[in-house]
Design goal:
Number of helices: 6
Distance between the termini: 33 Å
Low-confidence stretches: none
Mean pLDDT: 89
Strand content: 15-25%
CATH topology of the largest domain: 434 Repressor (Amino-terminal Domain)
Oligomer: single chain
Radius of gyration: 18 Å
Order of helices and strands: HHHHHHEEE
Shape: elongated
Largest sheet: 3 strands, antiparallel
CATH class of the largest domain: Mainly Alpha
CATH architecture of the largest domain: Orthogonal Bundle
Helix content: 40-55%
Structural class: alpha+beta
């Protein structure tokens, strides 16, 4: 079975469209099309799904079945705390707790109301829907 990214790319190619052409035909920002085709966007808002389906000449259901859902994400709080600590220790090679693929990590620098620096670890999986937010 294709991923959402593969399905959109193959269908677009079969219709003879570029990513820019699909963006124009669907009235979806090119950056969103690029995110979908690169696998960054795994679940779409209903309106985006409908516009994309119309432009790709398929049913919204054809796209929906390829999207990933949030319902199966279960990671213990201990594991999340460990990942946060590793990110703050500037480790780069951290595996996703769900699928084992590499996490894309960064540290967001923010300031609180008293102008104190606050470091917030962020991560998302390069393959599945796992995300760590702060």
């Amino acid at each position: 079975m294709d991923t959402l990214a593969e399905f959109v790319q193959k269908t677009r190619d079969n219709l003879g469209m570029s990513a820019k052409g699909l963006a124009k035909k669907s009235a979806i920002e090119l950056s969103m099309i690029e995110d979908i085709e690169s696998g960054k966007e795994l679940f779409l808002p209903v309106t985006i799904r409908q516009k994309l389906a119309k432009a790709l000449k398929c049913s919204p259901q054809d796209i929906l079945v390829l999207e990933r859902g949030y319902q199966d994400i279960v990671v213990s709080e201990d594991k999340l705390m460990e990942i946060r600590a590793r990110i703050l220790n500037h480790e780069k090679s951290i595996a996703c707790p769900r699928c084992g693929e590499p996490l894309v990590v960064r540290i967001e620098k923010m300031y609180d109301l008293e102008d104190n620096l606050v470091l917030s670890p962020k991560a998302h999986c390069s393959k599945c829907v796992f995300q760590l937010r702060g």
